[in-house]
Each structure stands twice: as structure tokens, then as C-alpha cells.
Amino acid sequence: TSDVLAGFGTTIFEVMSKLAIEHQAINLGQGFPDEDGPADIRHLAAKSVEEGPNQYPPMMGVPELRQAVADHDRRFYGLNVDWQTDVLVTSGATESLAACMLGLINPGDEVVLFEPLYDCYLPMIKLAGGIPKFVRLDPPNWEIDEEKLRAAFSDKTKLILMNSPMNPTGKVFTREELELIAELSIKHDTYAICDEVYEHIVFGQKEHLSLMTLPGMRERTARIASAGKTFSLTGWKVGYLTAAADLTARIAKAHQFLTFTTAPNLQRAVAYGLAKDDAFYNDLKSSMEAKRDRFRNGLQRIGFTTADCDGTYFINADISSIGFDGTDEEFCRLITTEAGVAAVPCSAFYQSEGARTNFARFCFSKRDEVLDAAIEKLQDFF
Ligand code: PMP
Ligand code: GLN
Fold first, then answer.
1. Does Transferase show up as a keyword for this record (predicted)?
2. Which residues of the chain fall short of a pLDDT of 50?
3. Would you say the ipTM is above 0.95?
């Protein structure tokens, strides 16, 4: 193992999913929906596999999908995107993230990150030789401490990597917060990589704002999204990135040596999906919001207090609120093996020394009867 990777264990998603399978627990750990996305998108992909072509598509992505991403970004964010130069298709958002880190970071460059952070961020930064500067957010409100964020930036900062709506917190960054990030990115002349895979899963009055739309940010921001979340097709691993032409070219330089391309048939089907009408996007939002409410109400009936959740399909429950005094890792193992419900400890998403939480993350993108069964099992156990 390389020295960098020797510092990391097996990803928490794999660990908890394996434990869930062993104990036949309802898996609310790893984040994925239990129903596949739209049948018409899947049929189109199947037809495209049958009819072909099935050979390498262009390195930047099939033209239909790059056009659809440009149209999507204009439709939802008013962005003016040239599909030929400003869009890159990758194998999931994960590969976009890797290509950004490997394509932009030099050894010794600093990277500003919010904790808790999605699990692939830190290893990717370290593999690229970057030095993480963490800004910690805490439950239950996940508020940004402005002074800490200011202090994290320096003349060595190459980029800020952020995620809104944010996994695992369910936080949706406000305009004021994004303005602060923009101010600091501009002042220190950094890039901003914004992971927006949950862009269409935002609840209530909250609105997802794309960092790229703020003044001065169009040239320095890369916006990353994924068909996995928007179409509940996580296994397809079709992601897409929007950035200014010169920034896209730098990122594509890494992408060409990582995967080079992504299955063309899936790309064509996703292109069709992105053009779906407002009813589709509204329904995604309202059905996930109803699931959040259903599951949160269930947790509260058991006696858990929950952290704020304005987006994504994750909610964090305070394990101390029902009198559990062990760690969140112990809690998640216990409920997986004894109650038959798997969750992921929120502490697994904190990397800086000593950072811990009393929170367990539950994924609620499941059928109602599965959510109800999970609540029943937890209720019986506690
Ligand atoms: N970023 C975040 C915040 C995620 O939650 C996920 C997936 N769960 C990804 C990136 C990876 O997306 P993909 O599966 O498209 O690689
Ligand atoms: N993004 C998913 C989660 O947060 C998991 C993806 C994965 O297993 N790598 O649970």
C-alpha cells in the first residue's frame, strides 16, 4: 500500500453494508435509493446497448450529454455554458472529484475543506499531495464559524472543496455563506470545487444556489453533479462537471488518464433524463421530503432529537438524546447487529484530530414500508 493510503481503512459504507448483510439488517447506512430511477431512462439505455455503438465515446463525453448538461445549467441556474468547452462527463461525481484534485493540486498546496466531509475527499487530496485545512461544522445546526473559515485560507490555498447540499449533514448552504466563500476564494485567488450531487434534493423553502452563479465565481468554480442522485441510478456512475473552458481543460487532462470515458449508452440515456419536465424534478424533491418527514417523525416518536436536514437523503439522530452513552460507532454497530437496522456513525466523516460526534446518519431514500419497518425495529429495541 502507498504511504498515503496506509493511513486509511476500508470505507465506512462498505464496512456497514457488509455488516448489514451479515445480520440481515435494514440498510439505512450506505446512501442509495431502494427503487431504481425512471423506467424510460433505463429502457433507453438498454436499447442503446442493443443498437450500439458500444465503442469509446469522445474523451469529454458524448455530445448529447454535454449539450444536455449545458441546457440543464441554463435552465436551473441561468448559467451560460458552452457545451463544447465547459462540460466534462466523468465516471460518477467521484471521478470528477479525483480529476479536479489530480489536475489542479501540486504537492504542498493547501485545500480548505468543511468537516464532516464525504469520505473520498481527503484521500484524493492527499494522493495529489495537497494539505487539508479543516473547518469544522457541528450538529445540530452545522453553522459556519466565519473566523475559522477566514483563518483556514492562506496564500498557499489552491482550492476550496465543498459540498452543498451536504452529505452527511443535510445542510444547504445559504446565500450569505456562499458569499463568504466567494469573497475568500476571490481574495486568495483560489479555485472552488463545488460538489452539488444533491442539487435537486432540497426541502421546504430552502433553495439550492450554485456557487458558480455568484459574482466573480464563474471563472474559478467547477460544479460537479451526478445522474446517480438525480435519477436514482447510483450504480451507473455517470457524473458531469461544468467549469470555464481553461479550467475544464486542466481537469480533463487528468480525466483522460484516469478513465478516459464512461459507457456511451448510459450517457445517452442520462442526456434524455436531464431534459425531463419540471414535474419530474418537483416530484423527486417532494417525495424525498415526504420520506424525510416520515422517518424524522418516527425517530422523534422513539425519543431521538435530530439535526437540521434541509436537503440530501440523510438525517442525523442524536444518540445521547435517548440516553446512549457510548460512541456513535458503537451505537451503529449495536443497532445493526441487535436491532436489525444499519446506520453510519457521523464521526466517520470527521478526520481532524479528536473530532467526534454523538450522531448517527440514516439514509431515508427507501420505500415507506421499509422506513416504517426500520422505525418499528428501533422502537422495539430501545
Ligand atoms: N459526492 C457526494 C457528496 C456523495 O454523496 C456521493 C455519492 N454518494 C458522491 C459524491 C459520488 O457520486 P457518484 O456515485 O456519482 O460518483
Ligand atoms: N455516497 C454514499 C453515501 O454517502 C455512498 C457511496 C459509496 O458507497 N461510495 O452513503
1. yes
2. none
3. yes
